[in-house]
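Input chain follows. Return structure tokens only.
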Amino acid sequence: MRIVVIGDTHGHTAWKRILNEEEYDKAIMLGDYVDSFTLQPKDIADNLLDIIKHKERMGDKLILLYGNHDHSYYYGEKCSGWNMVGRYFYCPLFEDMFNEKMIDLIHIEDDIIFSHAGVSDYWMREVCGFNDAHDITFDKIKEFPLGMSCLDWNMIKGYDGYGDTISQSPLWIRPHSLLKCKVDGYRQVVGHTHLRTPVEQDGIWFNDQMPEYYVIVEDGEISFKELKPL
């Protein structure tokens, strides 16, 4: 099994080149398809529409995950970069993605959890009441008393404006807290926090490096790969 993992796109089109050049059995995109300080909302929306069309063609071979910037438009919790104009372009696209069940919160392959920011054991057990990472689905979260709001940025374990607390959801948690409160028995591949260079620490691969780097998982081995300039 060879899996290509693409971090936060934020309107970047480099995902097309990666998926055209790589051989793979499955591709996973880690969310945050929208918001940019350099690209216009219409261009970002066109890129997201291309991703949706690619998903329609590829089916289960392409896994689309949900990020905090996507949540900002679909669910209305504003985060940095939120754009009033973008709202009119993005919201109908996310509505369609959810209606057609094109988007997931996490994806698990063997002992690897893929998500936007990472799954904290505290959030899974204490905030949501789940005992196993396989329980983390949109359908089950919507049955939970808090519903989709359990994905919101929170102050349950103290205030940190950066979201660096163990109670944050897979949309918001930062590396320091994730490393303190990992889910036992799993490795993780995440995006969300842009670091200067690709980093693997204690079984977690931090992969918000588009368009310079992405991740390859091959027969259970995880590595970063550089996308060479054209």
